[in-house]
Amino acid sequence: MSSSTEKPMHFRTVVRAGVPQSRHGKHRDFVHLILLDLDRLKEGAALKIPLSELPDRKENIRSALNRATRKASRKVATATDDEFLYIWNIKD
Predict the structure, then answer these.
(1) Is residue 41 part of a domain?
(2) What pTM was estimated for this model as a whole?
(3) Digit-coded pLDDT (tens) for 15-47
(4) Could you tell me if residue 11 is inside a domain?
(5) Domain count of the fold of the chain
(6) DSSP string of 28-76?
(7) Residues spanned by the domain of 73
(8) Is residue 85 part of a domain?
(9) How far apart are CA 18 and CA 9, in angstroms?
């Protein structure tokens, strides 16, 4: 089939070399800070983050944290109350 009879593309195309290869979501920096603190967290302790300091809804932060910890093969747990998000490491 010649190119003159092909249907046009619905979307633009780009060279793959110009396509980002990793996800840099809007929560990346905040989740990175959480992971750094979890690295330094003593056993039996949990991070206590005021919900008022979260850059987005707690559900979205938890989802972003879940993606990051799965990617890094880490296990963490979370809990919330009316004022805080708690995060701690889980030992294997």
Answers:
(1) yes
(2) 0.74
(3) 888 777 766 778 889 999 999 999 999 999 999
(4) no
(5) 1
(6) HHHHHHHHHHHHHPPTT--EEEEGGG-SS-HHHHHHHHHHHHHHTT--E
(7) 26-89
(8) yes
(9) 19
